[in-house]
């Protein structure tokens, strides 16, 4: 990975060809909090038609930004389901329940940025291991505080 972050204000550059890919969950890892001196964490999702992205959860300390590059993304935001299309931008504030998936008749390609940054890459790798059957979903329950990802139940999702 080509990451240049020599000082707290140095640019972070991640070449597309160097980004780690997690095909089981459609994620491409771009920059974790440690690469951006805590400013942000960023990854790109590319979901197949109707594919699930993330179950309902919330972050206590960070906002999560979604920019839809292509396709259609359904997002749970609080108690609403919002449909976002190509070019749409959405910011989910801290402590707001949210989830996302590709719309049933569409693929979805989106950039996700969490700010301030949370070390998320190991969390996403664990989600990929769960999808491959190498770990249980319960393995994330003890790590909710570490990743500031707290699972919630949503009657509308």
From TrEMBL:
It comes from the Bacteria. InterPro entries: Cupin_2 (IPR013096), QDO-like (IPR053146), RmlC-like_jellyroll (IPR014710), RmlC_Cupin_sf (IPR011051). Residues 45-113 form the Cupin type-2 domain. Pfam families: Cupin_2. This is Cupin. It comes from Amycolatopsis taiwanensis.
């Amino acid at each position: 990975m080509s990451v240049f972050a020599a000082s707290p204000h140095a640019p972070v550059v991640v070449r597309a060809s160097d980004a780690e890919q997690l095909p089981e969950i459609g994620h491409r890892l771009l920059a974790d909090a440690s690469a951006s001196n805590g400013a942000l964490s960023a990854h790109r999702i590319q979901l197949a038609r109707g594919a699930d992205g993330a179950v309902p959860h919330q972050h206590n300390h960070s906002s999560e930004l979604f920019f839809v590059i292509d396709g259609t993304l359904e997002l749970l935001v609080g108690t609403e389901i919002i449909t976002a299309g190509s070019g749409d931008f959405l910011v989910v504030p801290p402590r707001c329940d949210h989830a996302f998936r590709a719309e049933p008749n569409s693929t979805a390609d989106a950039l996700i940025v969490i700010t301030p940054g949370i070390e998320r890459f190991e969390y996403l790798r664990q989600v990929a291991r769960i999808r491959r059957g190498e770990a249980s979903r319960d393995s994330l329950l003890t790590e909710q505080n570490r990743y500031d990802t707290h699972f919630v139940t949503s009657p509308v999702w």
